[in-house]
Write a structure and sequence with these properties.
With 275 residues, this protein is an alpha+beta fold. It has 2 domains: 84 residues, no CATH class; 113 residues, 2-Layer Sandwich (GMP Synthetase, Chain A, domain 3). Helices cover 31% and strands 26% of the residues. The protein contains 8 helices and 14 strands. The protein has a 7-stranded antiparallel β-sheet, with no helix packed on it. Strands 12-13-14 form a 3-stranded mixed β-sheet.
Length: 275
């Protein structure tokens, strides 16, 4: 099959030269529109663990190009449909029957008409194929509710030491905004009894000029616990993803972002690449 495809896909030297010129001469925000001038919309996951990447894409590359979620599928059902609200989905009422557990009262189970806007719920799914009242790992925050639809945003399902990934990302954004520091990725862990937030910077940052004690204070002000901020070298997360791919023999798309961990091997890996 590969040989057959290669016969159909021949190198295009003119296109290669055109792309080289675009990448050399244009601002980052103009690159995508120059490479694909007819591109009107990008559909990708812009929520939960992927929000930091969607935010970077919008800030650095998209200019006026629209970006929105695709669909939200779990192992149990196709739960969410694309919605024009940024980072949001519409509950797919045709694929399953849903119930909801409030995060602040896990003994209570609510039907769709009982839930309220701006609240966080864990989703329970029942399907026509026989799945009955299954507690998924999906947590949502309801944004808008009416008779015909429920609009929600997906939240991360991982909570480590009572710290959510959303809270970590809020601390990352606070650091980035306060000191004008571009952050590509991050990971949070506890090591030797100390809470640590490891930030992966943009390539063009001079880390010697950054006061990490000041950053730690900024992060701790918006964080549930005190945290020590430090930096990893560029491309640390890409290297870690490649490590996971090779170790478990899995595809790139199967590797979820690692933004919080209590795995000793993972912590040891990231500590190797502290700046």
């Amino acid at each position: 099959m590969k040989e057959g495809l290669l016969k159909q896909i021949q190198p295009d030297q003119d296109r290669a030269n055109e792309l080289r010129t675009i990448f050399k001469s244009n601002n980052p925000e103009d690159v995508i529109s120059q490479v694909w001038p007819n591109l009107k919309k990008i559909i990708c996951d812009t929520s939960a663990s992927y929000k930091i990447y969607a935010d970077q894409l919008k800030k650095n590359y998209l200019s006026d190009i629209e970006i929105e979620n695709s669909f939200l599928a779990t192992d149990e059902a196709l739960i969410g449909k694309s919605n024009k609200t940024e980072g949001a989905f519409e509950l797919n009422l045709n694929s399953a029957f849903y119930e909801f557990i409030p995060v602040n009262d896990e003994d209570k189970i609510l039907l769709a008409y009982e839930i309220e806007e701006n609240q966080i719920y864990r989703v329970i799914v029942s399907t026509v194929s026989g799945l009955y009242r299954y507690k998924t790992d999906l947590y949502i925050r309801t944004l808008k509710i009416n008779e015909n639809s429920i609009i929600f945003e997906k939240l991360c399902d991982r909570v480590y030491d009572n710290v959510t990934e959303e809270e970590i990302y809020n601390a990352v954004k606070a650091c980035s905004s306060k000191l004008n520091v571009g952050i590509k990725d991050f990971v949070y862990f506890t090591d030797d009894g100390e809470n640590k937030l490891l930030l992966e910077p943009s390539n063009d940052i001079n880390l010697k000029d950054i006061d990490t004690e000041k950053l730690s204070k900024i992060a701790s002000d918006v964080f549930p616990v005190n945290v020590k901020v430090s930096f990893s070298i560029p491309f640390t997360h890409l290297l870690y993803n490649n490590y996971l791919q090779n170790k478990y023999n899995i595809f790139t798309d199967a590797v979820r972002p690692t933004h919080m961990t209590n795995n000793e091997n993972s912590i040891a890996f990231f500590k190797k690449y502290v700046y």
